[in-house]
Amino acid sequence: VAFALAHCFFLSTFFGRLSAHVSPTPALTLQMLAGVLVENIPGTREAIGEAITTDASALVRKFALGCILARAGLAMDAASAWANRAKVAKLSCVGMIEMTTVAGLFIALFSLDAATSFAGGFLMAGISLAVVIPPVAEFQRRGLGVEQGVPALIISASSFDGIIAIVGFGICSGIVAAGGGSGATAMAWKVPTQIVVGGVGGPALAKALVRANILSSSTKPSTGVLDASLVLSTVMVILYSATHLEVSGGGALMAIAFCASLALEWINHGCSDALRDASVALTTLWSDFTAPLLF
């Protein structure tokens, strides 16, 4: 498995670097092409594609989700998102239209039931986080559109879309696994619980870690790589705990709320350097390691 993952990583990295010479093709496009080639070319399919187990693939996807949620949370301006909540809601509708359209196509073309079709729609909508957040975070770092609030608006809407997609997929897949409509009743109580626990638990955890000087604070110097490691580790614990409790949507919400609140805590305590350094470290981790391995 390690051999197969290493070859996938190096091949995807090579294709990603190649995109710089095939402008304006995004690196993600060629990285996905590398994955398609590995999975479909005879010889490489048996040696690499089929050698990657389901557990290894799930681990990579979970790590990638944690990385992108952490980066999105740190880049989110909670105050700006609340001030522009109407615009965020309108922009989020684009993802919902995409999800509904995909679900409708599944029903029309493949004659699938509603729960399975909407699970597929939510799954497709959830991919937007990995595509949208990294370039917009880079625009924000370079100061492009910051005065107009464009990066903050896009990141807030994409994060909201991602949370809805994860919660929706969890509910629909639960209904499918339960074998019908009774699953909806069994899952109904989890939705408000996920929202409350995720929305309250994330900020509380961020305050606790900063005040305990576990992360950089006004009395502790900034260490970007260490902060990024601790933030990502915390996010991964949240996501795995949520998966174990079958509340994946609440885990995603708590992870984003934790990182957004942490960013606000750092700014309020005059630790903008810590926020910048941790964000740069997570961006580097995503672009140089996680994205090539995922796609």
Automatic annotation (TrEMBL):
Q: Under the GO molecular function aspect, what terms does this record hold?
A: antiporter activity
Indicate the principal place this protein occupies in or around the cell.
membrane
GO BP? proton transmembrane transport
- The yes or no answer to whether the keyword Zinc-finger is present is no
Q: Where is the Cation/H+ exchanger transmembrane domain?
A: 11-295
Where does this polypeptide localize?
A: Membrane
Matching entries from InterPro entries are given as: Cation/H_exchanger_TM (IPR006153), CPA1_transporter (IPR051843)
Regions that span the bilayer = 91-112, 118-137, 149-179
| Span of the signal peptide | 1-20
Q: Which UniProt keywords apply?
A: Membrane, Signal, Transmembrane, Transmembrane helix
Q: Name one GO cellular component term.
A: membrane
Membrane topology listed for this record = Multi-pass membrane protein
* Keyword Transmembrane helix found: yes
What name goes with this protein? Answer: Cation/H+ exchanger transmembrane domain-containing protein
Origin species: Ostreococcus mediterraneus
